[in-house]
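Catalogue entry: protein

Sequence with per-residue tokens
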Amino acid sequence: MNSASTDPFVPCRRVGDGSWHHFFGYYNKSNWDKGNRLLLAQRTPWMDQYLTPEVKATVGYFDTGDGDRFHAVGETGAWNWQMGSQLQWLDGAPGRQLVYNDRTGDIKARYPGFGAVVVDVDSGARRQLPMPVYVVAPSSAWALSVNYRRLYATHETIGYSEPGQPFELPLAPADDGIWRMDMASGDAALLVSYAQLKAFHHRPSMDKAIHWVSHIEVNPSSSRILFLHRWTERVKDETCFLHRLITMNPDGSGMRLLECSDHPLPQLAEDFDPGAVGTFDYEKSEYQISHPLWQDDGHIIVWGPHAGEIHYHLYHDAEGGAVEVVGRGVLVENGHMTFSPVDKRWMLSDTYPDDRTHERFLFLFDMHTGERRNLGSFYATPELSKENRCDLHPRWSRDGRLVCIDSVHEHQRQMHVLDVSSIVG
């Protein structure tokens, strides 16, 4: 860890020998397999690289039971620094299977050239799916898919580039949105379109805006979906993004609006300079709704505004469901939060870099006592931009005793494992 850190933090080790750069990506799923031994990762020769369709990352896993030996299973051109290739284990499938996005070259696909690859790490068997995945349901029976070309235009950090961009995109099309793809057959159905989202509890600020979705998550029993609906008239300025938290059934029915942060946007004035917006200003906005995740089948943790205040909030997914503040006065800024898979008492999260020191904290929050326990302080290289930054994105091991993060505090993009067993017991 950075030498400026003085707290008695928990044990932390780098994964691998550091001869390549490695990262997993997002915080919303574990990169440990069901046996708690194999650790998914993307490998690259660079810490920082502008991503074009030709830039490839190696997909594979570390075997922590064999000296962190890295096993490559493929290569992908469909990835970004924030989410990787949406690499994830198929927890509900037999054996040890994983899936990741790739540029398949299938020009007849729903999103031409993009799909996903399923790999059985034990047999080596591979098969291709006709759509890229965003998240796979815990049952592994189906996945949700979106248009990564659209995401690249609306929120470059989480999209995939294509030759010939920028493209003109319809603002709220009726033939695109969130798709549900069967993981066995590849058959897909459109669950909700952007036109439907625009019409659902319509706001005037939506009329001239382009629409997209992000942070799509499936609850543990695969019976309910959450997502953020976002829209803006100025895609290059994230402080102009407007947000809603919505849930629905796996067939697209039962759509429910839990929160909306629509508000006036002085940034849309002609003389406003988007270049004056700092790298993390968007993440620190008082109107931001971000990083929602299921605590269990009926509750959602999220950073966002409610009743005129912005906090970590816990929502009950029901019409008129209760909303409660988590960590008032203790959890005072945006982070990537998840609950221990074995004990919901423990919430894992992080902070964004301090504007002055560029340090960010990884911590556990005790839902019983309201106490925050810092696990480490990590330096974030300020030269990295929005698109190629390295957030900690903390992830739990399956037994809830270890935490994995991505970090650049050693001037390499690497994964690190921290032992939290002394705290969680």
Residues 1-7 have pLDDT under 50 and may be disordered. Residues 12-424 form a domain with the Methylamine Dehydrogenase; Chain H fold (CATH 2.130.10.10). The first strand starts at residue 12 and ends at 14. The two ends are 24 Å apart (CA to CA).
